[in-house]
Amino acid sequence: MTALADALRGVTVRLEQAGDARVVEQLTADAFDDPRVPQLVESLRCSDAWMPEASFVAVHEGSVVGQALFTRSLLDAPRRLVDVLVLSPLSVAPDVQRRGVGTALLRHALEQLRTRDEPLIFLEGSPSFYPRFGFQPAAPLGFRRPSLRIPKAAFMVRPQPTYEPWMTGTVVYAEAFWRHDCVGLRDL
Ligand SMILES: CC(C)(COP(=O)(O)OP(=O)(O)OC[C@H]1O[C@@H](n2cnc3c(N)ncnc32)[C@H](O)[C@@H]1OP(=O)(O)O)[C@@H](O)C(=O)NCCC(=O)NCCS
User: Fold this and answer.
1) 58 with 101: CB under 8 angstroms?
2) Residue 5 burial (C-beta neighbours within 10 Å; 0-12, 13-18, 19+)
3) What range defines the domain where residue 113 resides?
4) Which ligand 1 atom is nearest residue 4's CA?
């Protein structure tokens, strides 16, 4: 049996619950080694971008070891503003990285989110990691980055079942991303 299959056996994914916040904050700090990212999560949690049904955590041996957070942002489309989701951050505790936790977390979360109304999920991240989850470069579909500091190849989108081709335009991040300057952080 592969190491990946071994690891997956012991990991469950569930929605974040009351009482998880402090552990999530710590694992986010550990995963990113950048104090702005846990601050971003806390600010999002207190904002109207937060959706309790879209913060997923991975649990391994009774401990929360990962979080996939989706929050509400806007697409400034020609017809109207469109509510969209942004995946940020995706965090796995350093001592269990590269054992399938992030993959299990993201696959479960995306499956749960398929029936939501928001037609698009955006992220900025590694072009070698996210395409396996249905993300693709966003610019060719007519989307513009919220910041020129986001490398073009890192700006990705996953169209959902409610996506329609008229939905193009500029992604406008929720305010917390700007407040903590958590835009365009990623190196490729
Ligand atoms: C990126 C991250 C969420 C992946 O979770 P994970 O549990 O380690 O990933 P999995 O074990 O499910 O998948 C492993 C694959 O992810 C990819 N991967 C993992 N970390 C990566 C990184 N920093 N950059 C690019 N790809 C990465 C690799 O392709 C790897 O495949 P490999 O084992 O063949 O090399 C995790 O490593 C992490 O929290 N990193 C620090 C924070 C971060 O950069 N988050 C993503 C940006 S929001």
Assistant:
1) yes
2) exposed
3) 3-179
4) 11
The reply to whether ligand 1 has any atom less than 6 angstroms from the CB of 169 is no
pLDDT in tens, 98-121: 999 999 999 999 999 999 999 999
pLDDT per position as a tens digit, 116-175: 999 999 999 999 999 999 999 999 999 999 999 999 999 999 999 999 999 999 999 999
Residue of 24, 187, 22, 19 whose CA lies nearest to 105: 24
- Ligand 1: atom nearest CA of 104 is 12
Interatomic CA distance for residues 45 and 91, integer angstroms: 16
Number of domains in the chain: 1
Ligand 1 atom at shortest distance from the alpha carbon of 124: 48
Instruction: Write down the pLDDT at residue 10.
Output: 86
The enclosing domain of 13 has a CATH number of 3.40.630.30
C-alpha torsion angle, residues 66, 68, 71, 73 (rounded to 10): 130
Task: Quote the mean pLDDT of the chain.
Answer: 93
The answer to whether residue 187 sits within a structural domain is no
* pTM score above 0.90: yes
Task: Tell whether 74 is covered by a domain.
Answer: yes
CB of 38 sitting under 6 A from ligand 1: no
Q: By alpha-carbon position, which residue is closest to atom 36 of ligand 1? A: 92
